[in-house]
Amino acid sequence: MRAWRPRRKRDLFVPGYDDRFTYYTQLFALFIAAIGTVGVVLSIVQTAYAVIATDDNSVEMAVASVETAVNNVYIQMGALLNVSQEILLALRDLRSNGTG
Description:
Radius of gyration: 36 Å
Mean pLDDT: 79
Shape: elongated
Number of strands: 0
């Protein structure tokens, strides 16, 4: 292998090893690495396109949705507290009627 030196680009595809399995394993690894690199680049391009293509109102819609949900929670908590207060008053009335 030490004597083998590629002189042209085509020489890179000529196996320089005595063991062909090692050579084909390395070619397969380079092929998988190339596919992974292309996948990462396309993912970055897709994310950039999605950010640019939207009118960026999705963040505003998400904030409005969260505010609506928080307001609904406040309304429900108020209703639960009101019901709890009414139950306590009813139990106090029952206790005072039962003992008095």
